Amino acid sequence: MTGTEIVDLCRRHTLFEWSAQAAVDPIPVAHAKGIYFWTPEGKRFIDFNSQLMCVNIGHGDERVINAIKEQASTLAYANPFMATEVRARLAAKLAEITPGDIDAFFFTNGGAESVENAVRISRLFTGRHKIGARYRGYHGGTAGALTLTGDPRRWAAEPGIPGVFRIPDFYHGIQKGFDTTEEVLSRTEEVLELEGVNTIAALIVEPVTGTNGILIPPDGYLQGLRDLCDKYGILLIADEVMAGFGRTGAWFSVDNWNVKPDLITMAKGLTSAYVQLGAVGMRRHIADHFQKNVFYGGLTYNSHPLACAAALATIAVYEEDNLIERARSMGQVMRGLLEDLQSRHPSVGATRNIGLFGIVELVRNPKTLEPMAPFNGTSPEMQALGKHFRQEGLYTFVRWNTFFTNPPLCITEDELREAFAIIDKGLDITDQAVL
Ligand SMILES: Cc1ncc(COP(=O)(O)O)c(C=O)c1O
Fold first, then answer.
1. Considering only CA atoms, which residue is closest to atom 3 of ligand 1?
2. CB atoms within 10 A of CB 392
3. Whose CA is closest to atom 16 on ligand 1?
4. 327 lines ligand 1 (CB under 6 A)
5. C-alpha 114 to ligand 1 mean position (Å)
6. 121-167 pLDDT, tens per residue?
7. CA atoms of 216 and 352, how far apart (whole Å)
8. Is the pTM of this model over 0.85?
């Protein structure tokens, strides 16, 4: 099929995410390799968002493809009441690489299901029901995960599930900036007291926030949350669905501060999206609770052998190719490139990155830091920038007044510079709007 035929048929018979359907303009994708993907007509794109921040090892890795093929021909599926070798090996490997004494895993089909199960486990384990989450956070598109989500994607799902309350954010948009660790923690403790500490099962946070702005917490914040949770018998859930698996230059983003959560949710980079898989990991004593107590949870595709095989092979790629360390060192290169952009383009109001998890915030006025597009909105300049990226063969997320720089972790320095050269030219467009 031609690209146009693919797009027309997809638009006619499928729904695209989070959009009014008349507004969508998808790129037809035929094949992909490394950091690139191609349309059926052969136009090449640099995948500067690793698709949905998930193809961390890069596209088309034969080691993962062969592992999937081999598993498909040996045992494509066994129901979750069975025990399989890939399930056993994957869980043991995850116990090795996850922080602290996280030791047991429940496998799911993705991030949202992992979050749903983390919430249920927290409630069953503590006997409490409330869950605290932040406004600037995304946790998935199912009922509970959307209630925990603070950003506008939650609005249409309201009233949502009972028992969810908000804990304070440490970032308030480019004009108001960041709170100090002390400020945000003291306001958090006040909210916990007002909610009733004995009613709270868990707090869930993205340790480094993803789609809501690559928000890197001030030092001491995550440890402070850990301490508050310990003080009040509340569980800490680290949602590592986007920030996990090397994205920040560590296996998990909490590792950057050496903080150990009680539960950890993961998906995306777990298989680099070659096959869909999510997991919720839990500390030993939480897993032990379910020795005598029923674990009320189940999914037909829990521990799917194809997905487990893809995950094992993907983790081996991170290790063989030193992709975690690579994300850290290439993150330094990206830092330099981002700082260079900011020094030369007046429309660049802020840049942030940790490892290969990066963002640029654009402003209309460098003095007042008025954003180039409003909260939850767009502007002609942001649209023109998105158009430039597309024309020049750079794919990334352009959201509100920001765009993301999240390439696969296998990217080379030359490839990174190639992408930044396209960005550099595009920023001439937004510079023209600067007052
Ligand atoms: C932090 C976080 N949690 C959960 C999810 C939901 O994952 P999924 O779309 O696989 O259900 C996402 C997806 O982007 C995410 O970024």
1. 139
2. 15
3. 242
4. no
5. 9
6. 999 999 999 999 999 999 999 999 999 999 999 999 999 999 999 99
7. 8
8. yes
